[in-house]
């Protein structure tokens, strides 16, 4: 199994593609530029089986409908943000002048708890990591040694908490109780910016050392 990082849109939100040798793949956070993402997948002969959302802020969901409709695949989202996809005030698109109000069709499947998950041949664990937003989740691939963390944890930073439902103390709690318990060599595939590791952030992230 391998992963690819595809930055999309004005905010360069990282969409991640996790693929098997047979070409089956999962799409995480298709935030914008649906045609670009579809062309990227087509050139590599990849066959998406699902879209998984770390959370429902507009810069992570902008291409959901275009990609979902093209491949006829389901979308997964945590229940705390079930209403966000179609609500520009909740998904944040209302507050950014460069962004048209965004309304996305409802998710096909709702994540309701932390659990081991299996989609086809893909196996991972869903961690609830709220704070950046109430329904933020992280997808941990233990055997492969990486976690798709959305906007919870970045290289030398953490997610912003000034949008609806944000809570910095809750975010720090999520990071320390869920993410920092992962092996230090675990790759952190963040929603923006470069990939880092759990160990790197334990040692050098200024937002975490004083918690």
TrEMBL record:
Which terms does the record give in the GO molecular function aspect? hydrolase activity; metal ion binding
Task: Report the transmembrane regions from the record.
Answer: none
The protein's required cofactors: Zn(2+)
Q: Which SUPFAM superfamilies match?
A: Metallo-hydrolase/oxidoreductase
Q: Which InterPro entries match?
A: MBL_Glyoxalase_II (IPR051453), Metallo-B-lactamas (IPR001279), RibonucZ/Hydroxyglut_hydro (IPR036866)
State the superkingdom. Bacteria
Give yes or no: UniProt keyword Metal-binding.
yes
Alphabetically sorted, this entry's keywords are: Hydrolase, Metal-binding, Zinc
One Pfam family in the UniProt entry: Lactamase_B
Where is each Metallo-beta-lactamase domain found?
Answer: 12-192
Q: What is this protein called?
A: Metallo-beta-lactamase family protein
Upper lineage is: Bacteria, Bacillati, Bacillota, Bacilli, Bacillales
């Amino acid at each position: 199994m391998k992963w690819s990082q595809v930055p999309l849109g004005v905010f360069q939100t990282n969409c991640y593609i996790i693929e098997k040798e047979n070409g089956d793949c999962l799409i995480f956070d298709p935030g914008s530029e649906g045609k670009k993402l579809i062309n990227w997948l087509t050139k590599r002969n990849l066959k998406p089986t699902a879209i998984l959302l770390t959370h429902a802020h507009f810069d992570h969901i902008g291409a959901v409908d275009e990609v979902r409709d093209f491949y006829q695949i389901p979308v997964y989202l945590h229940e705390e943000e079930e209403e966000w996809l179609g609500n520009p005030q909740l998904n944040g698109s209302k507050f950014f002048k460069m962004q048209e109000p965004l309304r996305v069709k409802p998710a096909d499947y709702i994540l309701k708890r932390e659990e081991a998950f299996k989609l086809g041949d893909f196996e991972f664990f869903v961690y609830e990591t709220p704070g950046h937003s109430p329904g933020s989740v992280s997808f941990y691939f233990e055997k492969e040694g990486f976690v798709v963390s959305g906007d919870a944890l970045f290289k030398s930073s953490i997610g912003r908490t000034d949008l609806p439902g944000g809570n910095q103390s809750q975010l720090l709690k999520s990071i320390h109780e869920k993410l920092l318990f992962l092996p230090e060599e675990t790759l952190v595939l963040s929603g923006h910016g470069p990939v880092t590791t759990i160990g790197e952030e334990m040692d050098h992230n200024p937002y975490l050392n004083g918690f």
